[in-house]
Amino acid sequence: EGIVGAITGRAVYQGTLSFAEAQKLADKLSRKGEA
Q1: Distance in angstroms (rounded) separating the CA atoms of residues 8 and 2
Q2: pLDDT per position in the chain (35 positions), as tens?
Q3: How far is residue 11's CA from residue 26's CA, in Å, rounded to a whole number?
Q4: CA distance 6 to 9
Q5: Potential cystine with 11: which of 3, 6, 17, 28 (Cβ 3.0-4.6 Å)?
Q6: Could you tell me the CA-to-CA distances from 21 to 18, 35 in Å, in that order?
Q7: Are 19 and 12 in contact (CB under 8 A)?
Q8: Residue 8 DSSP symbol
Q9: Which pTM does this prediction carry?
């Protein structure tokens, strides 16, 4: 959404951001917040 979405979308498109790795990190961080 907004600028974050634009930056993320471009990084995924350019191959400088691995969606799978980003999802793993997001899952890890969201689990940390549940404790």
Answers
A1: 10
A2: 699 888 888 988 898 988 888 899 889 989 887 75
A3: 16
A4: 5
A5: 17
A6: 5, 22
A7: yes
A8: H
A9: 0.50
